[in-house]
Amino acid sequence: MCYGTLMSELSVEMGREPSPAPRQLPKEQLLKIHDLMLEGRVLEERLIRMQRQGEGYFWIGGPGEEAFNVCLGLLMKKGRGLDHDFFHGHYRSSGTLLAMGAPSIDALRQMANTKTDPYSEGRNFVGHFSKREWNVVPITSPIEVQYSIAIGTGIAQARHGGDGITIVTGGDAGSAEGDFASCLVWASRPMLPLPMLIVVTNNDWGISTPAESQHGEANVSDRGKPFGMPTAVCDGNDPEASWFAIQEAMDYVRRERKPFVLEARLSRLYGHSSSSGSNYVSEEVDCLDVIAERLERRGWRSKDETVAKRTELEASMQGWYKQVLTEPKPRPEEIWDYVFATENVVAQDAAVQSTEKTAGDL
Amino acid sequence: MATVVQAVRMALHMGEAHLGVTDIFGEDVGPPLGGVFTATQGLETAWNSPLDERGIVGAAMGLALAGQKPVAEIQFCDYAFNTIDLLKLAGNTYWACAGDWNVPMTLMTPVGAGIHGSIYHSHSFDAQATRLPGWKIVMPSNPRDAYGSLIAAIEDPNPVMVLLPKALMRARAEGPDELIGGEPDAKELRARIDAPIGDRSGWVPDWPDLALERVPEGTSATLRRGDQVSVVTFGRLARVAKKAAEELAGEGIDAEVIDLRWLHPYDWAAIRDSVKKTGRALFLNEDTEITNFGEHLIRRCCEDLFGDLRIAPRLHAGAHVPGVGLSEHLEDASVPTHDSVLRAIREAALAPEVGRSMRDVPRVERRAPTVDFSLDREALEGRVITHEVFGRSSRYRA
Questions:
Q1: Parallel, antiparallel, or unpaired: how do β-strands A205-206 and A209-210 relate?
Q2: Mind listing the pLDDT tens digit for each residue in A218-231?
Q3: What residues of chain B lie within 8 A of the CB of A140, using their CB?
Q4: Fewer CB in a 10 Å sphere around the end CB: N or C, chain B?
């Protein structure tokens, strides 16, 4: 592969259209992506309302990242063990989890901190997913640690061979932490390059601090270049640009067993979290508008059909929400559960063989 | 007869040969050096990492999550402080995800003073480590325990930290109880498993056939039985305390010395039984004394054993100063020494019982059972700090 070509295809300089002409996804695929993006947005908006109504303590999530995150989830080689992709996400990864097949109701459960929350049994904030069955490593509140921890799954997969890779995502603000540099250093060691897709979802903000006031680098992904890594910047608000950028980066990592840094420029549509108001930001591009306009232009889904789909999803979400409110909370004595493991469950995963197809094999 | 560092090396070999260890790594851990203390010479799975402690801990966590069995080394615990949030995370992962992922990693690191290591090679880590719920913490004081605690750590499905007293790295067994089952004599062992000086590219170790021995979690070792005072310690000071206790026997003082070994989970039953017997407890370690692990044990003694206590439980620990200074005078003034341990045991053994002193001295000024630094002008001008703990006053030069 000629990475010069890849770079020119993927690079989006702000204010300029990428060239050559963007590639298109087939109708059914784009409609599926749209469905998932809509569900992701409806989910996040329900989570925000739950927090405001006092049915959860704190909201943080990924509205504005649906286009990129849904594509990432669909393209992942989902499953358990070294033959599948390991995903080290961050707290804006709900679109990725939905695309992988995680039910929305489970995120509602985590918001309501119920015992039935499958990711933490009421212990952690919403968006802090964990799913060993799919190699989704526990998501944490620190915005950088995943870049260090991903090194380890990357080493295991480099040794194991096959085409399973390690995918790590974080934000532009978090890339200022040392762990991001650690990730670049360790992923490119000459003695063992790592099959790692290093993703930065760049929304230009760190809570209230504009990236332009703190980051002198033109692109965060440029930091991969001195390490000999191919890098790319894609329009993360555009599902098709995201899809092809992720696919080509993944293909490279799977085949070459080397790291790739992919930066997605995208929006943050409800602010940082509930602590900053979680109000809709109309000044930024909304990826749902981008895809809806495109579907309508191609005659694949009308505005009315989009509204109907959204209404249908909101009704479903309302039902799940009502159900979650009836579910039990954890009991006080459960603080003593899971302090120490008595069984090495993760060791059982190492031998699990490839049994599932890539979710993106549509 | 193995040294502590040879025992560590043999345990790691047993780990990779029989217990599924996949990675032994850290700074200078792999060939050609095999560790700055030679703990990892000749091991098949040992490799060098970048000089990046956060990367080392993160990589170990990721390897563990991927079903591997890593043993990571932080070259000196003084350099583990920038990994604290990752250590916290390793400890809380299993809990936070409600049992979805366990983190079977071992982290070993040399700790403590005693080699004139100055400000960045003399730190202790037991106070920090015991503030990390979700971790198991062990600190051996002899070759056999070093071997057995590493084996136990490797077999455990949780994160386990093995704190290795760096001053004991070359220490050998002091009795048959400290010998590893099946180990050759010192000369033969050196010839078989120590890398040669110079070119070692063609060298391979000839590992002895050892028994798989463990120091079961939460078990202490009573190094000396006694009826008069209980000395509860671990690591480097376990040997110091034992020697001091033996010397004090000549003065008619009968001290019991417990080597705790595991700091978490720890052997409360052994402490309880000993303190109930003697009524006098001295907790001894070399970490700085404020929010010291020994203070927790004192609190537990006060709450659980108050009626059995004949004196207020005591702590002899490192001075709460920002570092361990290089000069012998500074180091000796900063951490417990043989002489200070001897004095501390003697004072604890001979101090008047609380009840009796209260009767004998009717106007005793009661002090709050909290740590209180008081810096009066006179003391400050004389650069002498008066440090009062539990109503006991000690003065040391600032």
A1: antiparallel
A2: 999 999 999 999 99
A3: 89, 96
A4: C
